[in-house]
Amino acid sequence: GLGDVPTATAIIRSWERLIAMVGADIVVAESAPMSLAAAHGRLPSVVLGNTFAVPPAHLSHFPPLTPTEDWLPPHEATEAVLHAALEATDRPALPWLPALYRGDLRICDGIPQVDPYEELDLF
Questions:
Q1: In the beta sheet, which residues pair with residue 29?
Q2: I need a labelling partner for 100 at 20 to 30 A (CA). Which of 21, 40, 51, 73 fits?
Q3: What percent of the chain has pLDDT over 70?
Q4: Residue 96: burial class (beta carbons within 10 Å; 0-12, 13-18, 19+)
Q5: CA distance 16 to 107
């Protein structure tokens, strides 16, 4: 949903309509980052999941999933789309892309043997 601004904006507005329709007072999200974008600045949110689905939110960029991985995602372009969509929907900016997963409460657990961030000691 973060490939272009019109799509990202439409997804946030769709989540916004669903949240309003059910009268939610809080958003609990597991593998639903755009629902977190819709809640951002509007409702409290809980980010729920395992360590793969709930990446570290305090870093300026998503770390590689393995220590030897050379792949670097296009953070700047994706971050620019998110920021523009947040602005278009009158939501505050986020300091960096992973902050989308910050939430007001994070419930994250994993098994060290399969935790992609275990060796990075981020949590």
A1: 47
A2: 21
A3: 86
A4: middle
A5: 23
